[in-house]
Every structure is written in structure tokens, then in C-alpha cells.
Amino acid sequence: MDRTVVAYVIYLLVSIGLTIWVARTLSRNGRIFLADVLHGNEKLADAVNHLLVVGFYLVNLGFVALYLSDDETITDTRGIFEALSAKLGVVLLVLGVMHLANVYVLNRIRRRGAMEREQVPPMPPQGWVAPQAQA
Predict the structure, then answer these.
(1) Contact indicator for 126, 50 with CB cutoff of 8 Å
(2) Which of 17, 18, 49, 74 would bridge with 3, disulfide CB 3.0–4.6 Å?
């Protein structure tokens, strides 16, 4: 088997494995944020969480697929390691940026929900007072 093909197979296996691991971690821990933001609505939190995970998979696996091709032919074992380190390094950086973006967005949504809860009066209004005429 050609060394370039070996590098491609290893790259795909590691990249897809890392993407699945990060997506599961985001899904498991992001659900807590979503449930808080959505005031305990578990069904809606699960639905939004699932949509976010699907989008994460699509973006990252699409990037992995686009970044697969290489113009250089790998001629020795050292070339396999060099190609894999460069490709996997970029994939890890993209996964890290996507992870931080997800955490940032979830935190912003959570903060907005907390601010909205603070604006609600602690007691419902008990009556109405007519405005006074100005002299």
C-alpha cells in the first residue's frame, strides 16, 4: 500500500475520532447550559443541543474531508509523520476554535437569559394607579 494512502487512513481515523469525542463532550456539557437558558425546558434543550451537535459534525467533518488531499507524495516513514502532524495540528486547532465558539455562544445565551430573569419583578402587580394631572 502506498505511504500516502496510509497517511490518509490514519488522518481520517484520528480526525473523525477527535471530532466525535469533542462533539460528545460539547453535547453532554452544553445541555446543562441550554437547560438553564431555557428555564428548565428539557425537551427544548435536548432539541437545540442535538441541532448544535449536528451542525458541529457537519462543519468539522466537512473541513476534515476538504483538508484530506495533499499535493505531495509521501516517500518515507518520516514523511508520514510530518504530513500527519501538520494535518492533525490544523484539525485540532479548528476543533478547538469550534469548541471555544460553542462555549462562547452558550455562555452569551445563558447570560442573556439571566439578565432577562433579573428584569422580571419579584411580585406581580397588585393594582393600578391613575396618573396625576400636572398643574
Answers:
(1) no
(2) 74
Cell of 68: 484530506
b/e per residue 3-17 (b: at least 16 CB within 10 A): ebeebbebbeebbbe
Q: Tell me the pLDDT tens digit for each residue of 94-127.
A: 888 887 887 788 778 778 767 776 776 667 777 8
Which residue do the cell numbers 452544553 mark? 30
Query: Is-above-0.85 flag for pTM?
Result: no
Query: Hunting for cell 433579573 — which residue is that?
Result: 118
Reduced to 3 states (helix: H, G, I; strand: E, B; else coil), residue 15 is: helix
CA 6 to chain centre: 30
The 10s digit of each residue's pLDDT in 23-37 is: 898 888 878 878 877
pLDDT beyond 80 at 132 = yes
95 burial level (CB within 10 Å; 0-12, 13-18, 19+): buried
Report yes or no: 100 and 61 within 8 Å, Cβ to Cβ: no
61 vs 12, 19, 58, 107, CA distance in Å? 10, 7, 5, 25
- 1 by DSSP, 3-state: which? coil
Distance of CA 82 to the CA centre of its chain: 28
